Amino acid sequence: MNARTGHRLTTALKGLLVATAAALGILAATAGTAPAADPPSGGGDALMGRARELFKPLPATLPVVRNNAVTREKIDLGKMLFFDPRLSASGIFSCNSCHNLGLGGVDGLETSVGHGWQKGPRNAPTVLNAVLNVAQFWDGRAEDLKAQAKGPIQAGVEMNSTPDRVMAVLNSIPAYQAKFADAFPNEKTPVSFDNVAMAIEAFEATLTTPAAPFDQYLEGKADALTDTQKAGLELFIDKGCAGCHNGVNVGGHDYFPFGVVAKPGAEILPPSDKGRFAVTKTADDEYVFRAPTLRNVALTAPYFHSGKVWDLRQAVAVMGSSQLGATLSDQEIDKITAFLTALTGQQPRVDYPLLPASTPATPQPVFK
Ligand code: HEC
Ligand code: HEC
């Protein structure tokens, strides 16, 4: 029996007990008032029960990563690589340039700016909790973080490097060779482009944000959410937001059209970016995007793949009309937004790594 059915059973059982007790007049007699329909148990309430059916608290433990045994050595190396701008051709951009870990794992730009000051086509999603997403990128085109990491290093508008150049950089720095040998023991060629991706993935797996007020609530702490946030949670469920943003990551696990009921204007949904259509070439996937995780969403403006919306309240309103055909009132928007702020978790504490010095053999930065 899994936790979900277990929970449903206890709820049913509780209902039965309350009904029986009420029939015998026990509750009314002892409490002197009418029995509550669903009395708190372990700090719980009816809303908490409903929330537990739809969401899961984010575990404080390291998530399991498919096909990559995460070790301390890999994590340490991956952290260095995440912060090392020498993975870019110009020596200017590191992963952290666009996924700033002091800023919720994003760059705070409409769309990212990379090599040669070029503006990319999409807003940078956060790397926080990305390990829990079903696949990576707005259109899910990379199946996991190790596949993902090779993309930006080579993308012309991002880091504009090549696997050969990255190998030349890392092999020119003895301290990196030693770190790769530690992280990938018993391998014939520890310094490889694949292993760069494996190490970065291992580090990214540590970038989870547990213990948000909402997690504490799901774990039974009824007063972890304010009354306004609870009202927002109720609306989030009742209006249908939770139909697409649910599970442990409050999203991140499935694809939906942006504009299920009504397409947002071209300003927010530029016609040129057809989303998942580019991956599957299926007409049904035109303007389909992964429903993003809403964890830490209060930290990651601007919103949507186009990055055109700067105010979280406006993003909520757009979702109401485009995905649900509902015009949310100002009060409803305020409450839902208050709930979304309860999804901000403990940010990972990352010490800036010391990076080993380049040598005369290290390829020099190129700007064109
Ligand atoms: C110039 C800015 C830039 C740099 C540098 C950059 N990224 Fe990104 N990153 C982006 C953008 C923009 C996207 C979204 C692209 C898309 O969906 O098509 C993205 C997407 C991602 C995602 C997917 C998250 C999700 O929820 O789908 C991850 C993970 C990620 N980047 C990690 C990295 C790593 C690791 C590096 C370094 C090797 C890196 N990025 C370098 C801008 C950047
Ligand atoms: C039918 C599925 C669906 C429903 C229902 C839905 N969403 Fe979304 N949501 C999405 C998708 C898909 C995106 C990504 C859109 C894009 O940028 O391409 C998104 C994006 C968002 C964003 C922007 C996040 C970011 O990081 O940019 C917020 C905030 C959001 N949704 C909140 C809500 C709220 C609040 C509701 C209920 C009023 C809701 N959503 C209902 C699918 C849905």
From TrEMBL:
GO terms of molecular function: peroxidase activity
Signal sequence range: 1-36
SUPFAM superfamilies (alphabetical): Cytochrome c
Pfam families: CCP_MauG, Cytochrom_C
Keyword set, alphabetical order: Heme, Iron, Metal-binding, Oxidoreductase, Periplasm, Peroxidase, Signal
Source taxon at top rank: Bacteria
Species of origin: Azospirillum endophyticum
Entry keyword annotation includes Metal-binding: yes
Domain Cytochrome c stretches: 73-204, 227-344
Compartment(s): Periplasm
Gene3D superfamilies found in the cross-reference section: Cytochrome c-like domain
Protein name (record): Cytochrome-c peroxidase
PROSITE patterns for the chain: CYTC
Primary location: periplasm
